Amino acid sequence: MPAHQVLATVAVSDFAASSAWYARLFGRVPDNGPNASCAEWQIARCTRIQVLPRNALADAGQRAGAALGIMVDDLDEILLGLQGRQIDVPPPQLATHYVRFAPICDPDGNLVTFVESATA
To answer: Which CDD domains match (predicted)?
Structure first.
């Protein structure tokens, strides 16, 4: 099944607080707000992240919560930028000889993991 775009949705309990957290995470305000209770960031050419109130997903019959994996070129640079935006980050971990990662959680405990190939 070929796809041409990926949209990940994150359910949150406090839309305003979580939208502000994701704005700090991505370093900018949302790129799109389809309605008053949806904030959306385009993080790659064909990848978007939406933040929605938890009850909006429950009303649609979806299980709340999310785990996002974001592949990056320079994990250290990303983590330094996040620290500068007041987001707590752990030290990078080595998963294998080829992959480093750093998992962080949003205010609701949704997992956002930044992943970098350690081969260069």
So the answer is: VOC (cd06587)
